């Protein structure tokens, strides 16, 4: 079938074009995309900071309505409202032990342009077009394996739910699935973009007593207070470690989440941790980090852990987030601003300069 898509033919660009989308195979689902979130990972692939074969169609926070299912698909049917999440193999040790963020085939299935059978469903004439995250949702329709198609409550506006497939789940899942802070814990979140703000909301759900947001933008810190932060620190105007020590009665935080990838921010997060504290790194590094292992880690029994995709089992976690949203506990819609699909370049620019926290592209219907 013919679909409209934003194709990256060359590094750093999008071209709105008509391409061919092949029919579903036995375990696949055709989804009419209603909307798709814009995520920093799309930027990384578009700009070739991480290798992704071109030409390709990006987009990995798609949401929409099931149009057709393959003959072996049992849990989904035409008309279901769904969110598309990251692709996993489902059979490696990490997938089977409920840690699919560590799927042994993560790179192959999400960044190398093909589905599990080694082919793509997208073409322009004779030219194959690479898939992204097993979905390529910067398009009016997408084909995905049933494993990364998640049924959601049809009573909730489907156009806002796409970001639950990656960025929003990364922040909230790092708290609720990976760190699992106890009631009364202290946590600091470094960076108040979509991932960081989602982590703050989750920390409130988890019952953390002191929830500290760190950023350089006052407007984002104000929003952080709206969605869960009990304290905020502007790192342009304050010594972050000193301020956090004051807030925590010189104990440091029990947990920290670093969402920026900036080495200096990472070191602040580590130094502001308390004894036996845990730092979760969720962002791709923007440069090398040098640690003094004795003083920075061992003497105070600190833990540093990398977390991918919030360590979330998407088919379980995304419906849980929807329920938190319905209950008024997870107001992630405060982060969203909608753009028409044709304005994709503007959406990416606004995200880059910080005008919009979570752009969401609405597809032409």
TrEMBL record:
Transmembrane segments: none annotated. SUPFAM superfamilies: GroES-like, NAD(P)-binding Rossmann-fold domains. Residues 12-361 form the Enoyl reductase (ER) domain. Its EC number is 1.1.1.90. InterPro entries: ADH-like_C, ADH-like_N, ADH_Zn_CS, ER, GroES-like_sf, NAD(P)-bd_dom_sf. It comes from the Bacteria. Its cofactor is Zn(2+). The keyword Transcription regulation does not apply. Keywords: Metal-binding, Oxidoreductase, Zinc. GO terms for molecular function: aryl-alcohol dehydrogenase (NAD+) activity. PROSITE patterns: ADH_ZINC (PS00059). PANTHER family: GROES-LIKE ZINC-BINDING ALCOHOL DEHYDROGENASE FAMILY PROTEIN, NAD-DEPENDENT ALCOHOL DEHYDROGENASE. Belongs to the zinc-containing alcohol dehydrogenase family. This is Aryl-alcohol dehydrogenase. It comes from Sporomusa silvacetica DSM 10669.
């Amino acid at each position: 079938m013919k679909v409209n898509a934003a194709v990256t033919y060359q590094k750093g660009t999008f071209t709105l074009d008509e391409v061919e989308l092949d029919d579903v195979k036995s375990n696949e689902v055709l989804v009419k995309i209603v909307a798709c979130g814009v995520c920093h990972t799309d930027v990384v692939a578009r700009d070739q900071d991480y290798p992704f074969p071109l030409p390709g169609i990006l987009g990995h926070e798609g949401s929409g309505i099931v149009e057709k299912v393959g003959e072996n698909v049992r849990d989904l049917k035409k008309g279901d409202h769904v969110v598309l999440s990251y692709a996993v193999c489902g059979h490696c040790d990490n997938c089977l032990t409920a840690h699919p963020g560590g799927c042994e085939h993560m790179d192959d299935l999400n960044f190398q342009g093909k589905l599990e059978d080694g082919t793509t469903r997208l073409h322009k004439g004779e030219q194959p077009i690479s898939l992204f995250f097993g979905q390529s949702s910067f398009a009016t329709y997408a084909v995905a394996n049933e494993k990364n198609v998640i049924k959601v409550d049809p009573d909730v506006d489907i156009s806002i739910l796409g970001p639950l497939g990656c960025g929003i789940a990364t922040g909230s899942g790092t708290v609720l699935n990976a760190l699992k802070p106890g009631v009364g814990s202290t946590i600091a979140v470094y960076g108040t973009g979509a991932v960081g703000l989602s982590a703050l909301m989750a920390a409130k759900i988890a019952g953390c007593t002191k929830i500290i947001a760190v950023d350089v933008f006052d407007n984002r810190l104000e929003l952080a207070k709206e969605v869960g932060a009990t304290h905020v620190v502007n790192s342009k105007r304050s010594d972050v470690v000193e301020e956090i020590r004051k807030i925590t009665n010189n104990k440091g935080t029990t947990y920290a989440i670093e969402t920026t990838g900036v080495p200096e921010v990472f070191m602040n997060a580590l130094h502001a941790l308390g004894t036996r504290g845990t730092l979760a790194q969720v962002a791709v590094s923007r440069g090398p980090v040098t640690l003094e292992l004795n003083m920075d880690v061992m003497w105070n029994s600190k833990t540093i852990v990398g977390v991918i995709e919030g360590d979330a089992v998407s088919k379980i976690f995304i419906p849980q987030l929807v329920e938190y949203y319905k209950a008024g506990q997870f107001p992630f819609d405060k982060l969203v601003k909608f753009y028409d699909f044709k304005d994709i370049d503007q959406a990416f620019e606004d995200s880059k300069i910080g005008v919009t926290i979570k752009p969401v592209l609405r597809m032409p219907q």
